């Protein structure tokens, strides 16, 4: 897809609750990112549209499967968007989960300065508003057990949501969760020096997965931001300053972490997650990078098998796939 087509789709996408016809470019987007599961998987229905969350217009996607066993809220990471999570969406649908996903502010088809945010509370508000507008029986979402899965910054959004809103999830899976990025001390100094007179710095694409096809695709993805927002770094600094590493009172979660992750300070983050969610199970993936949602099929099979067992322990029994 071209940037011009994506801008047109962003303008033309109707409200999620509206029964208005969806623009043809939505079908083009689904095919381009291989998330057209309503075409490729029997019985799957799909709906997309926008909701308002504070100052942002968020793009929301929902897939429903017949005889579903659970509902999954999937939250992507920094620089990501819904279109990049087809592998996990397909796995969840085949396992009998309805899937609700949205583009975070400043990402994908959602509004906002690319890859920027002023406060991480805007991320948790987005989760709240998406669940309220598109995740209720009144909006067409079946009344089933909920679980959440986040990647990196998506995990930070889920954790901030846990701090400020009632927790609706029976289980939560955190993939390479962001608490503190790698070389955080240097990042803070750089932000203090440059943050007052620069808005962003050029993005450096890194080998954050061992899947070379994904790395090639991401470099040419028209929805990728090409700069790192210093507003986002400032928001992360403030969030970390106020984040108390104490028990959130929600019980354990399931954390998946690669030991070849050069994006987050995973050793620090592992300890922080266990403090926030005591009893957390940690599943290490030797050799895996940061982008676990888009790691190779072999790595995904390893951790998704473990996720299935964790969900069963939480009372969510998925279909075999």
Description:
The protein has 321 residues and is of the alpha/beta class. It has 11 helices and 10 strands. The chain has an 8-stranded mixed beta sheet, with helices on both faces. The protein has a two-stranded antiparallel ribbon with strand order 7-8. Helix 6 links the parallel strand 5 and strand 6. Helix 5 packs across helix 6 and helix 7 packs across helix 9. The radius of gyration is 18 Å and the shape is globular.
Helices and strands, with pairings:
Blueprint: H1 3-12, H2 24-32, H3 37-40, E1 45-53, E2 56-64, E3 70-75, H4 86-94, E4 97-102, H5 121-134, E5 146-151, H6 153-164, E6 171-175, H7 184-194, E7 200-202, H8 212-219, E8 227-229, H9 230-242, E9 254-258, H10 266-276, E10 281-285, H11 297-313
Parallel strand pairs: 3-4, 3-5, 5-6, 6-9, 9-10
Antiparallel strand pairs: 1-2, 2-4, 7-8
Helix pairs in contact: 5-6, 7-9
């Amino acid at each position: 897809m071209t940037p011009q087509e994506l801008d047109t789709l962003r303008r033309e996408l109707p409200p999620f609750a509206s029964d208005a016809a969806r623009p043809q470019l939505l079908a083009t987007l689904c095919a381009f990112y291989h998330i057209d599961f309503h075409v490729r998987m029997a019985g799957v229905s799909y709906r997309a549209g926008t909701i308002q969350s504070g100052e942002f217009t968020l793009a929301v996607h929902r897939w429903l499967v017949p005889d579903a066993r659970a509902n999954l809220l999937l939250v992507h990471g920094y620089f990501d968007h819904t279109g990049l999570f087809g592998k996990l969406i397909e796995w969840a649908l085949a396992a009998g989960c309805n899937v609700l996903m949205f583009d975070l502010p400043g990402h994908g088809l959602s509004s906002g300065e690319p890859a920027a945010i002023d406060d991480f509370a805007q991320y948790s508000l987005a989760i709240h508003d998406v669940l309220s507008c598109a995740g209720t029986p009144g909006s067409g979402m079946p009344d089933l057990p909920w679980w959440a899965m986040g990647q990196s910054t998506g995990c930070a959004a889920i954790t901030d949501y846990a701090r400020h809103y009632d927790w609706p999830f029976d289980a939560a899976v955190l993939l390479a969760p962001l608490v503190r990025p790698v070389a955080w001390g240097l990042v803070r100094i750089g932000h203090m020096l440059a943050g007052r007179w620069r808005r962003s710095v050029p993005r450096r694409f890194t080998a954050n997965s061992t899947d070379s096809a994904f790395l090639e695709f991401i470099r040419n993805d028209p929805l990728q931001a090409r700069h790192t927002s210093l507003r986002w770094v400032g928001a992360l600094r403030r969030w970390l300053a106020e984040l108390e590493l104490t028990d959130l009172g929600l019980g354990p979660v399931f954390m998946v972490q690669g030991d070849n992750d050069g994006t987050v300070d995973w050793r620090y983050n592992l300890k922080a997650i266990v403090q926030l969610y005591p009893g957390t199970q940690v599943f290490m993936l030797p050799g895996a990078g940061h982008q676990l949602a888009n790691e190779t099929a072999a790595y995904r099979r390893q951790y998704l098998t473990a996720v299935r067992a964790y969900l069963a322990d939480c009372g969510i029994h998925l279909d075999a796939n």
